[in-house]
Amino acid sequence: MAQKKEMIGGIETLEEAMAFLEARMDAETLAKLKQIRTKDAVITIANAAQLCTPDSIFINTGSEEDLRFIREGALAAGEEEALPMPKHTFHFELKEEQGRITDRTFYLAEPDEKVSSLANRIDRSEGLADVKAKMGGIMKGMTMIVGLYMRGPVGAFASNPSLQITSSFYVTHSAELLYRNRFNDFDNEVERLGYFYTNIHSQGLNRSEDLPNARVYMDRNDQTTYSINCTYAGNTLLMKKGNHRFSVDKAVKNRGNELSEHMFITGIEGPGNRTTWFAGAAPSGCGKTTTAMAGHHFVGDDLAQMWIAEDGTVRSINPESGIFGIVEDVNMEGDPGLMPLLREEKTEVIWSNVLIDENNVPQWTGNGEEAPKKGRNFQGAWEAGMVDEKGKPVPVSHPNARATIVASALANYSPASEDPNGVETSVITYSGRDADTMPPVWVARNSDHGVAIGACIVSAATATEVGASGVKRAPWANAPFIPGALGEYMDAQFTFWANERIADGKRPLMAGLNYFLTHKARGGESTKLLGEKRDVKVWLSWLERRFHGEVGGIETPIGIIPEYEDLKALFAEILDKPYPMELYTKQFSIYVDNIVSRIDLQTEAYGKEEDIPARFFDVLKEQKAGLVALKGSFGSVVSPFDLKEKNAA
Question: Which of 169, 187, 259, 621 is the Cys-Cys partner for 74 at CB 3.0 to 4.6 Å?
Fold first, then answer.
């Protein structure tokens, strides 16, 4: 194998590694180790143990016996606590670590290596020296747990073998729900693909005073992450977003053939019992799980690996096999597919940062149930009406409170999740948390305009990042996970979606989604949604029919929007509710000044980046010119009926 891993413990050969490990393993663990044929994996395990000096080493093969050891270890170590409902446990992060520590997350880079302008970098030599200093002896008194996983189905074009090394039973327990432990397939998959990712983590003493020294380092040279003094899964379970970054890197280098995206994958049923597969981007906390669950056939709610197959179709797989989902506002009304799983005994659930009430029942903000009066949550003891030192109400649960479950527990789980051929993907959506600008759904004229929709996602900052606030740009909902230059990533997007290898009739529809419009943004006073969360089922169904050429559309400078009669029929068919023309007019009128301001914002921001493809600016110029002309004819607010009449003239 051509890949060469960093020797952080100074062990360079397989012989040295085996001698070191044999002296520190019991017979059962050693027997497991000897089943691993990937030489560099064994050397990496030895180096991690040499540096971190654990008291013992455990190799997790994914067997029921090993999983029982992991679950019991998490409870014994106090990383999780049991709940009255069987298979349910809960975990609290430190109150200062309730999201990704982006300020302490760095790419290790060579001096001449380009790194995204949206990321932190550190010279590779300096970063590795800090890793060795901070991780030296960090696992003393602990067990080092080793697992061999696949990010995606075994045999898939875009799956990734991944080695996880951690001292946290909670992190390992989470990995068992979120990823595929493939101890027996790992060696063959590494041989097939020619590489594997490595993740080395320790929570250390798990104290607030250590958080200033918490670090997440990503070494792009040898595709290894290091996570130090932290416990939140977004900082520690780096098979998720850490390895996603490496996959983004791989896709950019292999541009035109594959993509690695922050997207859900779901199947929508249409007329004639057909299923049309969607993939869609949205920043964390902006409804990606809700949108994925709105489909009839669930594959994933967070990440997608995509490629162009030999038959000219775009194929997608989910590198994960579980859900690490935000639970705020998850309730029976908006999430009838997910909510029952969170209240039943048969589903294994790891809760994090929710409230545990007086009856030891998990509670969270917006669950639609009777409000708890007392309990304990991420900041300690809690009771209704409690305020913090600044006089602000302390919420029932942290906004980033989550539940971790296996996807196969979902009623709409699709067995296609494990198909190495992936699902044929026909619709791509991009959305953010946009209260006042874009309509609920619109379709790009062509792939270049589709790439521009993704590049121009804007969202309210969410609780997934420590210290984030306000409104921020969120390109492709993937910007925090793009290691290299933004211009290179955008070029890879243009190249992939315009690729001539995509067959005629198979080129995916690319669209914008926005179900966060408010009444206030359209002339009212309320900040409530203009419509309901569940309306997304109609927007998706309209896109499904649009891909198959079964509904019309109205041309606008930003793309194609639905006609009223089509939506009215879909609301009646899918949601069994009326769709007033007045609501349609508010939702789909073009608010020219708002959109032009958004275009100007993006033009200015991308103008500061290096090597942004010229065709991106060409799309924005074309759209702005069309909007300015439209304003000259109809004013600042243009109704869809005016547009339809104009197009017919």
Answer: 169
